[in-house]
Amino acid sequence: MKALSKINSSIVPLPIENVDTDQIIPARFLKATTRDGFGKNLFRDWRYEQDDETKPKLNFILNQPEYSGEILVAGKNFGCGSSREHAAWAIVDYGFKAVVSSFFADIFKNNALNNGLLPVTVSENFLQSIFILSNTSTLSIDIEEQTITIDQIKQTEKFELNPYKKTCLLNGYDDIDFLLSKRTAIENFEKELS
Amino acid sequence: MGKTLFDKIWDKHVVEKIDNGPSVLYIDTHFIHEVTSPQAFKGIEKRGLKVFRPKQTIATADHNVPTLNQHLPIKDALSRMQVEALIENCNNHSIELYGLGHPYQGIVHVIGPELGITQPGMTIVCGDSHTSTHGAFGTVAFGIGTSEVEMVFASQCVLQTKPKTMRINIEGDLQKGVVSKDIILYIISKISASGATGYFVEYAGSTIRGLSMEARMTICNMSIEMGARGGMIAPDETTFNYLKGRKFAPTGEQWELKKKEWETLFSDDDAAFDEVLSIDASAIQPMITYGTNPGLGIAINARIPVTDTIPDEGERKNIIKALEYMGLQSGKSLIGMPVQHVFIGSCTNSRIEDLRSVAALIKGKKKNDSVQVMIVPGSQQVARQVKEEGLDIIFSEAGFVIRQAGCSACLGMNEDKIPAGEYCISTSNRNFEGRQGAGARTLLASPLTAAAAAITGVITDVREII
Ligand code: SF4
Predict the structure, then answer these.
(1) Predicted ipTM of the assembly
(2) Contact: A33, B128; criterion CB under 8 Å
(3) Is the separation of the CB atoms in A110 and A52 below 8 Å?
(4) How near does any CA of chain A get to the CA of B221, in Å?
(5) Alpha-carbon distance B362 to B342, whole Å?
(6) Nearest-CA residue of chain A relative to B436?
(7) Which of A70, A157, B140, B457 is most buried, with most CB under 10 Å away?
(8) E strands present in B173-305
């Protein structure tokens, strides 16, 4: 995993609530056996008419060239539904580094963090301010400080981040290295259980 | 102070707690399937590792498998590759696989309990959100992502932050025609699709105690649909009777020892929950969803909310968008609306009791000409039981099509899909846009309500035909 400390970018706004993982990546694209290439099917059914890549739905945000950037901003309860990590892979593969919402589904949040994608939970008011300025402002996210700023109006909010996950993100550590270092403790635990 | 059921199991499985961070949680049983495991196998292989505890890992093929002609090679090349990768990975890592053609194959959350692999007090994970189903036995069971599957492969542990706990007490008798699916759809409609996010839910109360194991599984199964990390029910005589004699359940002296241990698994009287809800069972009616998340449900004889009167702007927009997708109108009743498809299956409602209840309702009747009805048993064992009990004859006389075991039209990964724009009344758990096929319109309901629609061809209050 790559280390991540600051993100400064324009945004892609998706002011829809309850965006579920079936929308982020429909089930028919889960047949791959690798982690790569899911970005081209991100929001597939919202992005294209009748599943046809040559027919983009022009009113969908990813098809509007004036919106681009490394930060996806979405309505509350983002990532609800299935545990498919493919949803996080698709968002990362498309080029996003952070998702901002006022509420995230649990499993999605874990999956995102496990792939170096930062989920930033902001207040509903802050979220609405971002949406209002969406095509004129940029966001600055500082992981060390745990702050997110709407640059144009200099409005800043603190966000929560588990200290363990923060260390992982800042250093690019991964959970499996950590768990492997615990193998002796795990083996001892097993002996006690039985 | 006393402990909750959840705390008793969780605490027992913590190997180590990281300061200011998650816990290293030991996993007793890890279920895997073809869709969310290949990248995890690749991951550990890249690190030069083998699966750490293969004997605690059980595999099946369910999400992506055809439900017709399972003895033939899978036609879809990508699906075939995924299933073949699972076979190869299980071989390389000495993991027991109940794959296609195996008498135990089936939906992962159906086979674990029916084989007696799922036992009270366990920690269970699977790369599938409906792992919460196993909580019906008094287990801490939850869905994980593929990175976490890789963690369990590497160490038999996951890193987890301890969730908050919620208790939902359900008391009283259920009305005629109301079953456990209606209870859970009712709860989700009350607290919304995100109402239990961050919590582990324990279901309790006289109504729950009165339910069979299979009915309890339906409730725990859909915990995730209100955002909960998992759902659970304290084990009792019903649980023990269900388990006794199953393939992998303990026997003899071992059984007695285990049972003693299981009998300690309940929330102490003075245990504190972060949140407590009370539900009056007699208020619950047969339920149906009208929208595109499982929280958008109503009593079958109620009307869809009038969108103009919804005060919260976000929610209003959300429902307007859902109704547009569903082709339904604000303020209208659903009763009498034609449906083109009925799907009876999925890890929510594909067990033998579900199919028995459907058979009892439709016996001697025929499906309406305008609907196609598909029954997909949850496992090979359920399919065999259907035959042994002669339910297959009732189904075929009614014009219902019976398929082979798998997830099928629950998520439309194989060829079992609902065509765009058509309505399907489904016993599954998700009504998201496109869940059952691009453009498909799903109405979630109980097996009884689905069966009623199969007979009449329109959305029907099942109480009128029983
Ligand atoms: S039946 Fe549906 S919900 Fe259950 S495991 Fe299969 S795809 Fe998931």
Answers:
(1) 0.89
(2) no
(3) no
(4) 12
(5) 13
(6) A27
(7) B140
(8) 199-204, 230-232, 275-280, 287-289, 297-299
Residue B229 to residue A106, Cβ atoms within 8 A: yes
pLDDT tens digits for B346-372? 999 999 999 999 999 999 999 999 999
The verdict on the CB of residue B65 being under 6 Å from ligand 1 is no
Give me the residue label for tokens 């729950």.
B208
B425 forms beta bridges with B342, B443
- C-alpha–C-alpha distance, residues B122 and B4, integer Å: 15
**CB-neighbour burial class of residue B172 (10 A; exposed 0-12, middle 13-18, buried 19+):** middle
- For residue A64, which of A92, A50, A43, A81 has the smallest C-alpha distance? A43
Distance B416 CA to ligand 1 centre (A): 13
A-B C-beta contacts closer than 8 Å = 177
Tell me which amino acid residue B195 is: G
A114 and B148 in contact (C-beta within 8 Å)? yes
- For the stretch B370-412, pLDDT in tens is 999 999 999 999 999 999 999 999 999 999 999 999 999 999 8
Q: B352-362 and B380-388 helices cross at what angle (nearest 10)?
A: 40
Give just the sign of the alpha carbon dihedral B361, B366, B371, B375: positive
Subunit contact A179:B411, Cβ cutoff 8 A? no
Q: What is the pTM of this model?
A: 0.94
Report, in angstroms and rounded to the nearest whole number, the Rg of chain A calculated over CA atoms. 18
Q: Which atom of ligand 1 is nearest to the CA of B346?
A: 1
Backbone φ/ψ region at B58: left (φ over 0), alpha (ψ -120 to 50), beta: beta
Q: Report the run of H or E that residue B372 belongs to, with start and end.
A: strand B372-375
